[in-house]
């Protein structure tokens, strides 16, 4: 499935965001995306949902400016991809995959914390 086809289900699946004051927000306020999401129907759908979007346009803009916001996600995905069991789904049962993601995230967090404490 192309990434652009998964955008709507992904945004719909975001749980309500807790806040200290006021009602819970039901959807994100802003979305940053690369040129793979530059389709008129997606921009209209996001606008109808009340989500401001910053999508690089095909043939007009470079994706460099979006890199400032996307690098956190890309870095985290690359850390998770460094774990061999997550890089390819070796497990036969689908229930085991989220458990290994949790273990990998814990190990990554521990390593980051340990490196900050020793520095």
From TrEMBL:
Pfam families membership: DDE_Tnp_1 (PF01609)
GO biological process: DNA transposition
Gene Ontology MF terms: DNA binding; transposase activity
Residue stretches making up the Transposase IS4-like domain: 2-104
Sequence ranges of Basic residues compositional bias: 18-30
Region feature (Disordered): 1-32
Name of the protein: IS5 family transposase
Naturally occurring in which organism (per UniProt): Streptomyces termitum
């Amino acid at each position: 499935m192309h990434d652009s086809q998964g955008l709507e289900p992904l945004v719909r699946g975001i749980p309500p965001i807790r806040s200290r004051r006021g009602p819970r927000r039901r959807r994100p306020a802003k979305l940053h995306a690369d040129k793979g999401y530059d389709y008129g129907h997606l921009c209209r759908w996001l606008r109808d949902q009340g989500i401001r979007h910053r999508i690089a346009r095909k043939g007009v803009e470079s994706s460099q400016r979006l890199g400032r916001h996307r690098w956190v996600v890309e870095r985290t995905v690359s850390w998770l991809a460094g774990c061999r069991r997550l890089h390819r789904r070796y497990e036969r049962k689908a229930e085991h995959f989220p458990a290994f993601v949790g273990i990998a995230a814990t190990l990554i967090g521990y390593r980051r914390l340990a490196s900050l404490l020793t520095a």
